Amino acid sequence: MSLFQVEGLVKRFGGLVATDHVSLSVERGEIHALIGPNGAGKTTLVNQISGLLQPDAGRVLLDGVDITPLPMHRRVAHGLTRCFQVTRIFPAQTVRDNLLLAVQAHSGSSFRFLQPRSQASDLYVKAEQLAERVGLQHSLAETAGALPHGAQRMLDVALALAAAPKLLLLDEPMAGMGPGESQQMVHLIEALRKDMAVLLIEHDMEAVFRLADRISVLVYGRVLTAGTPDEIRNHPEVQAVYLGTETLETTA
Ligand SMILES: Nc1ncnc2c1ncn2[C@@H]1O[C@H](COP(=O)(O)OP(=O)(O)OP(=O)(O)O)[C@@H](O)[C@H]1O
């Protein structure tokens, strides 16, 4: 059984069918990319997967559990966490405090005045481990809002990792990044594979073709095709869709 399945999802906005009977699956340890030209319906689909939007028909299953009726926070508890295009960090807080808040939120404890010291130090250790995982171990005392854009996106990923997701939804993680920052994000996503599956929505084709095990191509709300990077690169219909809009040329 696949870790994650979308079955026959439909979403209409008036007369427009933004998601038209979409089905896809993500396996354990897989990096699955969702690509498609502007307006193809990627955001609408991801909003239904994360629980921001309710579909008109179809189901979303995680680990065999039908999570379609669940609100976003309950999906997080089931193991599905999303990083947004816009970061959700607390800009006035330090990196450490951002991470502590995230770790604490998922630990079931709270920062009470008389909290046992061992419990509090455990949260600090977890926060520091997360910082190290995304390369921010030397920025723990810095104000999050003062970090460069790329580092803020890394922090956002670390906040998502605090929930220990089974499936991480990354919504354009490279958006607004310079080449160096994109490289760091690619390395980070590659390293996540051993602990979780990733559903990646990204316009940076070089990153997509480098990272993805499989790619689903969305066009006019439908899955045109799904396959390995090589299959997608050589697919005549995919090439036709992208010709004149975005290019599928990659260094891979
Ligand atoms: N709330 C809404 N009400 C009406 N139409 C909508 C709404 N949200 C999206 N749409 C329409 O649904 C279609 C799919 O939009 P969506 O934003 O999901 O595409 P996308 O693939 O994410 O595009 P982009 O890559 O530009 O972000 C578009 O035609 C869009 O205009």
Automatic annotation (TrEMBL):
InterPro entries: AAA+_ATPase, ABC_AA/LPS_Transport, ABC_transporter-like_ATP-bd, BCA_ABC_TP_C, P-loop_NTPase
One term of GO molecular function: ATP binding
Pfam families assigned: ABC_tran, BCA_ABC_TP_C
SUPFAM superfamilies to which the protein is assigned, alphabetical: P-loop containing nucleoside triphosphate hydrolases
Keywords: ATP-binding, Cell membrane, Membrane, Nucleotide-binding, Transport
SMART domains: AAA
ABC transporter domain: residues covered: 4-245
Domain of life: Bacteria
Descriptive protein name: ABC transporter ATP-binding protein
Originating species: Acidovorax benzenivorans
